[in-house]
Amino acid sequence: MSGYKDMGILVNGVLAEASTDDREKTKHMWDQDQHSLTHTIVSWAEPVAKKGDVLSLGNRYFFILAIDDTGSLGVAAIYYAEERNDLR
Asked: Which of 13, 28, 41, 49 has the fewest CB atoms within 10 Å of its CB?
């Protein structure tokens, strides 16, 4: 993966495919037409990744479009991501 390096950050959470409703409600968060929301990752911990990071799960890669620090309490996060096949 050119340009990316393992930062040793572990994100615990649940990966789910994004619905059309999710895409419509959140597209203003990244304000770029070339990215499309494909997945959400709900984490039960404070946000540790940031916008622009790439998370991997086995041989799958997810580009982080935006992060919602749920309730602004630092106890849960929703990562909005685009699955990318060109980052292998």
From this structure: 28
Tens-digit pLDDT profile for residues 38-81: 899 999 988 999 999 999 998 999 999 989 888 777 789 999 99
pTM (2 d.p.): 0.79
| Residue 62 to residue 38: CA distance in whole angstroms | 9
Mapping DSSP onto H, E and C, the string for the chain reads CCCCCCCCCCCCCEEEECCHHHHHHHHHHCCCCCCCCCEEEEECCCCCCCCCCEEEECCEEEEEEEEECHHHCCCCEEEEEEEECCCC
Burial of 32 (0-12, 13-18, 19+ CB in 10 A): exposed
Six-digit token string for 56:
């991997």
